[in-house]
Amino acid sequence: MDKKNNKNNKVSLSQVAEAAGVSKMTASRVLRGEGGYSEKTRVKVMAQVDQLGYLPNRLATVFAGDKNSTFIGVSIPDLGNEVFSQVLEGIDRKLGTFGHQSVLGLTQHTLQEEEDWIKTVLSWQPAGLILTGRYHSARAADMLRNAGIPIVEIWDLNSSPLDMSVGINHFDSGFDMGRYLVGCGYRKIGYVGTSHDTANAATTRLDGFCKAVEGGGGEVTRQLCLHDTATYYPGYYGTEQLLASAKDIECIFYQNDSMAFGGLQYCSAKGLEVPRDIGIAGWGDLPVASVLSKRLTSMHVSHLKLGQAAAEMMMARLSDEPVPSCRDIGFRLIPGSTVRTAHKS
Amino acid sequence: MDKKNNKNNKVSLSQVAEAAGVSKMTASRVLRGEGGYSEKTRVKVMAQVDQLGYLPNRLATVFAGDKNSTFIGVSIPDLGNEVFSQVLEGIDRKLGTFGHQSVLGLTQHTLQEEEDWIKTVLSWQPAGLILTGRYHSARAADMLRNAGIPIVEIWDLNSSPLDMSVGINHFDSGFDMGRYLVGCGYRKIGYVGTSHDTANAATTRLDGFCKAVEGGGGEVTRQLCLHDTATYYPGYYGTEQLLASAKDIECIFYQNDSMAFGGLQYCSAKGLEVPRDIGIAGWGDLPVASVLSKRLTSMHVSHLKLGQAAAEMMMARLSDEPVPSCRDIGFRLIPGSTVRTAHKS
DNA sequence: CCCCGTTGAGTTACCCGTAACATTTCGTTA
DNA sequence: TAACGAAATGTTACGGGTAACTCAACGGGG
């Protein structure tokens, strides 16, 4: 049934050309539609294309030299975190409208995984790379600089990016949340998050948060769930541990909404009423937050928009349009109703 | 700063070879480590590789002929649905352990998008394809058959797949849920879901569900939110519409958990107590279900495992290991506490 | 009827690595 | 030390498409 043509039994342009009785150059011209052939020839060639089911081999085109590939390498820490799957969705949808494809890499939040992936994906001659995070291994940074292709670093806004950067200022967003909670009258504040071996955006948020809280006369008790994902269960158990070791905590800030949900669940299980007995604040404003009867106090970031912006910057750069090297997506505090109402302080 | 070597200013193997004073064939042998060179030569070549920052061009290797690429095209309807992002995570992680990469395609649940994507991705000579769903356009099916590469259709178990299939039997899972709800004593049952222009797994579930309910003496009132995503808000408003048009509904089955959350929220907002006043059942058993104080009645499917299984089947096929053409991942009903307790019927 | 410009189509070379084959350089053994 | 086999290295050709160039056919103006 399959036509065994050449060794990989795929129909090649030469075969189409031969069948149509023209040279492969002519066939190539017809397929690219750039003119230089007669209507009669076009019909002959296209007839054979349909007949043989010819599919162009983009590998050959890109390999041949000048043409850019339509691959964009996209590295994402993990998809278990809804935040990143939204970012990826934004990226891939937008790239798709430009006829480009994402080559995915899940780095599991480690620089080594990212480095390995970069090495592999660069060997495929991608048109550009979109990377999550501003931190890269030295080797990775070297490869990136030498690659000579557009690079967008997303998530963690970077005023001196390798090439381009889009995201938010995590320090500021943490700071704002800290200031808000202090403004609500909280002083003994806990933090529950996960800990990775490398610096990341969550750490930066915590730094900003602590600065605001401490600057406002409060103090932050940290509880980091080591080597765990920033999801519901670690949020639950992290809360349990935190409250066991520091009973006078008035309010807890979580690395993200998922962990905050876990915290809410713990409080509910232990009969702690939120926000009467304890305040709960998350980060990221997941759509799921709407599931709760109480609106979760959180920080809203438009993840989809962030992904789209990254793809747009990439495409603009690839078309040699002027692109600002930095784009701030911004964030917005969601007061919610899981912390006590602010009183004049 | 950049070394302008050839037109795409990338370091090529010839340059490494020349710098090392050997032929490019020798350099190639060293890089592939398949023997046939002296230790002295190896050192010379590797020194230049490091020096020049050479990265192999996999395009050339694959293009050159026999070698398979390490691309696996993966089509996913959308990532807004947590279910699919988990599947994708399972796929990509597992592929990664085999040194393969996912080339993503978001088809937005339309066969046309899928067809367009298939055409594009095939032109990149992928080693295989993983597609969500068993329905494809005629043209797409043609291309897939002619591609001569392994294809795994996931999600909707297909007893006569194009090549391989892994997933669950959605009809049965809908049927089981229907039987369960009837067993709980419900007769007037509503369904809230979305409607797409093409047949899909959710439709199949609904078919199975209706069969069980009607077979058990009940009836199903459908409420389809047209042209919307299967998420929280359509669940909320779908519930409102359903209850407005059919006030005697005792229990509602939703297309998925996200929509069921929306339904729960609606009930809570309107003062309907679950399950006393109305029963709520979802599908998919999202991790987020744990956020609720009441366990949502749902159907558990291991999405991560499904993705991993798909990747494993793909890799096994690529290594010419024997692979069953069909693999059932199974599902498990989660009784939960959002439907009334079953009584002997 | 010739010259020349335009259009259509063919030829050649190249991209970068690798398979297949050819050749050189060794170390050994008779 | 000549001869030989193995190891190390080199040479050639190729894959699928395209840029750049060449060539042929055709038609209109002088």
Task: Give the SSE layout.
2 copies of one chain form a homodimer.
Chain A: H1 13-20, H2 24-32, H3 39-52, H4 58-64, E1 71-76, H5 82-97, E2 101-106, H6 111-122, E3 128-132, H7 138-147, E4 151-156, E5 164-168, H8 170-183, E6 188-195, H9 201-215, E7 219-226, H10 232-245, E8 251-254, H11 257-269, E9 279-281, E10 298-300, H12 303-318, E11 326-328, E12 332-334
Parallel strand pairs in A: 1-2, 1-3, 3-4, 4-5, 5-11, 6-7, 6-8, 8-9
Antiparallel strand pairs in A: 10-12
Helix pairs in contact in A: 1-2, 1-3, 2-3, 5-12, 6-7, 8-9, 10-11
Chain A binds a DNA duplex (30 and 30 nucleotides) through residues 6-8, 12-14, 22-26, 28-29, 32, 36-38, 41, 56-67.
Description:
The structure is a homodimer of 345-residue chains. With 345 residues, the first copy, chain A, is of the alpha/beta class. Helix content of chain A is 43%, strand content 17%. In chain A, the strands form three sheets. A six-stranded parallel sheet of chain A has the order 2-1-3-4-5-11, with helices on both faces. In chain A, strands 7-6-8-9 form a four-stranded parallel sheet, with helices on both faces. In chain A, α1 (13-20) packs across α2 (24-32) and α5 packs parallel to α12 (303-318). Mean pLDDT of chain A is 90; it is low at 1-7. The interface between A and B is large, with 65 and 65 residues. β2 (101-106) of chain A pairs antiparallel with β2 of chain B, so a sheet runs across the interface. Chain A binds a DNA duplex (30 and 30 nucleotides) through residues 6-8, 12-14, 22-26, 28-29, 32, 36-38, 41, 56-67.
Terminal CA distance of chain A: 80 Å
Tell me which oligomeric state these chains represent.
homodimer
- The largest beta-sheet of chain A arranges its strands as 2-1-3-4-5-11
Q: What is the chain-wise order of helices and strands of chain A?
A: HHHHEHEHEHEEHEHEHEHEEHEE
Strand content of chain A: 15-25%
Overall tally of domains of chain A = 3
Which class of the largest domain in chain A in CATH terms?
Answer: Alpha Beta
The helicity of chain A comes to 40-55%
Q: Count the helices of chain A. How many?
A: 12
Largest sheet of chain A: 6 strands, parallel
Structural class of chain A: alpha/beta
